[in-house]
Amino acid sequence: MNHFTxxxxxxxxSFSKIDFRSLVDSLIKHDxxxxxxxxxxxxxxxxxxxxxxxxxxxxxxxxxxxLPDGKPLEFYAKFRRIKHFRTISGFWLIKDLLxxxxxxxxxxxxEYYLVEMIRKLKxxxxxxxxxxxxxxxxxxxxxxxxNRQIIEDINYINTFRPDIIWVxxxxxxxxxxxxxxxxxxxxxxxxxxxxxxDYLAGKxxxxxxxxxxxxxxxxxxxxxxxxxxxxxxxxxxxxFVVLVVKDLTRNLF
Length: 253
Hints:
The protein is of the alpha/beta class. The chain has one domain (about 1-210). It is built from twelve helices and eight strands. The strands form two sheets. A six-stranded parallel β-sheet has the order 4-3-8-7-5-6, sandwiched between helices. Strands 1-2 form a two-stranded antiparallel ribbon.
């Protein structure tokens, strides 16, 4: 699927240059039996981690699509005069594809919020082909590989033969999980959408579109949980600034 998609390299990561409608059309037409794979939505935190992590960078560069999550990446691409580089919302991607004939499986979140999310989605999209859902085990990143419970979950997912497996875990844990296990699927594409499950379940409020467009979605999110997010956001912002300076030095001077 991605072999015919134009790529652009930023921070040594190959991002897919594709708009929302083209991505939807590609997934609708995709051969899910013979085209197993995964799709990543790295934010600035994951991008900065990948700069120092060869395996994570490999994971992002070997996906069907790697799509920027967050306006800072889009703004920087504009500064570099890279055209047609746009963020794509996993939230709206789920909602759009639920209106198609594709079969969906949801893997992520806690049991309570996962059930609540599925309940709300079935009310909003009664015609959607939601074949199943499952809450993954609570494990650290270092325990993702060769995990017996995850292997059992993949076998369980295979019994439903979904087209798309939506993975809602923290990043980059979900990227490692998709990379390690997508080949064990009998069919389907894994799509890592991170905290989108929390929005769909009503656990977290999604920011208005105008806030997202001006690049302050992070601030809207921060104001909901400042005690938990301040250190993460501060560290991520500082690391991203350092990465931008390195990239500018290498490419523009």
